[in-house]
Write a structure and sequence with these properties.
The complex is a heterodimer of chains A (284) and B (281). Chain A has 284 residues and is α+β, with helices and mostly antiparallel strands. Chain A contains four helices and 18 strands. Chain A folds into two domains: 144 residues, Proliferating Cell Nuclear Antigen; 115 residues, Proliferating Cell Nuclear Antigen, CATH 3.70.10.10. In chain A, helix 1 runs antiparallel to helix 2 and helix 3 runs antiparallel to helix 4. The longest helix of chain A has 17 residues. Chain B has 281 residues and is mainly β. Chain B has two domains: 121 residues, Proliferating Cell Nuclear Antigen (Box), CATH 3.70.10; 120 residues, Proliferating Cell Nuclear Antigen. In chain B, strand 12 and strand 13 form a beta hairpin. Classes of the chains: A alpha+beta (284), B mainly beta (281). Strand 14 of chain A pairs antiparallel with strand 9 of chain B, so a sheet runs across the interface.
Chain lengths: 284, 281
């Protein structure tokens, strides 16, 4: 098992740092899956996460100038690592004006991701700051736990409103309630609602579009034949939604959510080089 | 008016209904008196007064006169209710506190009367938020009985002169001592903290002094913790009037100019700290 990678381009480095920053806001610990072409950050839906799960995919070629990976075996050319993304985020914070960043999987006393940040210096030799981030190697026998979640059989799919507005509203609502109801219909309408003994607040978004889904096997999804005005709704933990929105520092190219009434809300946020899916289960 | 579709068709009039093109005209003033969760709202044809009290020693009032609103109608002689001010502020600022120049949140406020919730309709950029905030029985408020005939000393200062002093108030000092006198030091703020005593003097002929009417030398102490929240009102204001009466009660009146140049007032009343004896002064 070997892994070494290098980023030299400052823009790529900043982009990568932003992605890790977003991930660290969504998960205290997660799985990093390395393949020849891609990196995946995965959080599977355990009770400890409040049932939320995440699937984030990056094309390594868009970020790394050098990328060498040798998996656990020839026919399973992948590496699965458990790590705390906040550690990686903090290491990358020192790299804001770096000349290069090298990441290498090492096993001196225990498995670590060694992040070596080469910083500019006035003298001829560079300054290097090294961070050793402890990781856990995930054995092949449980790789099945980390398969890509399938798009649920949703009732309504809708593009999200302007994230800045949605972020402000959800942040204020978080002061007022622990739970939020998100409901939407196929007429481009979405409502965010909170209700407590003290106060009830509803924000109405209109003129959002509903993405046209083409199902792979040609079957009708449960969304077809649905009354256009009928709302699909789910009551979710407001902190999870707020963390998802707070982690979006740059506006995504596409942002949408799929609602399975009273079961789960599936968010898809697409940037040029990164796709992020986040599943928040509905509370009883 | 887009909100009229959401008003009930019952024909029952709202005892209070108001519209404001820029909700910040209201929210910024309310923040200046937000040092407790609960506030009493009092509405008459002249406008809205929001009162916050603490420890039976300090009272703050924010006045938003009817002219500030685009529409302000009160059906009864006066309307009064108690409300959670933190919740009210979260609702008024639902679209965020900082806004791009040129954009603002429009507000419509409706109240059906005793026992009913306060309804807020807020709109920004085509997005509408509807809030229903429960109201409570109003509690009796302190009456400081502060009228101009009982004033012993009064000065009016430009706020910029006091802002730094209040922002850097030595919080390790339990009291803020205010001396007002027709003779030197004229107007002095003193604190007695862990690091030592600090005195800040404002001479009566200072540029910052807009009016100086001191008849008697008075030195009074007020609990710093109670006065600290007034810093918010000071930060918003352009002028402040400082008055004391014979018992040492303090009145601070802040003149605040909003984004549209309209004038509003916030006042703070504070009881003197009784625990200090003359011997300690």
């Amino acid at each position: 098992m070997r892994f070494r990678a290098k980023i030299v381009d400052l823009a790529c480095l900043n982009h990568f740092s932003r992605v890790i920053n977003t991930i660290s806001k969504l998960a205290k610990a997660c799985t990093l899956r390395l393949t020849v072409c891609k990196l995946y950050f995965i959080l599977s839906d355990k009770v400890a996460n409040g049932g939320a799960s995440m699937w984030c995919e990056l094309c390594q070629a868009n970020f790394f100038d050098e990328f060498q990976m040798e998996g656990v075996a020839a026919d399973h050319n992948e590496i699965y690592l458990e790590l705390v993304p906040e550690n990686l985020s903090r290491a990358l914070k020192t790299a804001q004006s770096a000349k290069a960043v090298k990441i290498k999987l090492t096993n001196k006393h225990c498995p670590c991701l060694r992040v070596a940040v080469e910083l500019p210096s006035l003298s001829s030799s560079s300054r290097i700051v090294t961070h050793d981030i402890p990781v856990g190697v995930i054995p092949r026998r449980i790789w099945n736990d980390f398969r890509e979640p399938s798009v649920p059989d949703f009732d309504v799919s809708i593009y999200l409103p302007v994230l800045k507005t949605m972020k402000s509203v959800v942040e204020r609502m978080k002061n007022l309630s622990n739970f939020i109801v998100i409901e939407a219909n196929l007429s481009g309408e979405m409502n965010l609602k909170i209700e407590t003994d003290l106060v009830s607040v509803t924000t109405h978004f209109k003129d959002l579009r509903n993405p046209p889904w083409v199902s792979e096997d040609g079957c009708q999804s449960s969304a077809e034949g649905r009354h256009l005005e009928s709302m699909a709704e789910a009551c979710i933990d407001i902190k999870k939604l707020q963390q998802l929105l707070a982690g979006q520092q740059v506006n995504p190219t596409k942002a949408l959510c799929n609602i399975v009434s009273k079961r789960i809300v599936h968010f898809i946020l697409l940037h040029e080089d990164v796709s992020l899916q986040y599943f928040i289960p509905a509370l009883a | 008016m887009p909100f009229s579709a959401q008003l009930p068709a019952s024909g029952e009039p709202y005892v209070l209904s108001a519209s404001l093109d820029n909700a910040r005209h209201l929210s910024s003033l309310l923040r200046a008196v937000h040092f407790q969760d609960h506030a009493t709202c009092f509405a008459t044809a002249s406008g809205l007064r929001v009162t916050v009290e603490d420890a039976k020693c300090i009272q703050a009032n924010a006045f938003i006169q009817a002219e500030i609103f685009q529409e302000f109608a009160v059906q009864e002689e006066s309307v009064i209710f108690r409300i959670n001010l933190s919740v009210l502020l979260d609702c008024l600022t639902i679209f965020g506190t900082s806004s791009l120049p040129g954009t603002s949140t429009a507000l419509r406020m409706c109240y059906r009367g005793y026992g009913y919730p306060l309804m807020l309709f807020l709109e920004e950029g085509g997005v509408v938020t509807v809030c229903k905030i429960n109201t409570q029985e109003p509690e009796e408020l302190l009456d400081f009985d502060f009228c101009s005939t009982k004033v012993v000393n009064k000065i009016i200062l430009q706020s910029e002169g006091l802002r730094e002093a209040f922002a850097e108030l030595d919080m390790t000092s339990e009291v803020l001592q205010i001396t007002m006198s027709p003779d030197k030091p004229y107007f002095r703020l003193s604190t007695f903290g862990n690091a030592g005593s600090a005195h800040l003097d404002y001479p009566k002929d200072s540029d910052l002094m807009e009016a100086f009417h001191c008849n008697q030398t008075q030195t009074n102490r007020y609990k710093t913790s109670l006065l600290k929240p007034s810093t918010k009102a000071l930060a918003l204001s352009c002028k402040v009037s400082i008055r004391t009466d014979a018992q040492g009660f303090l009145s601070l009146q802040y003149m605040i100019r909003n984004e549209d140049g309209q004038i509003c007032f916030v006042e703070y009343y504070c009881c003197p700290d009784e625990n200090i004896t003359e011997a300690e002064l």
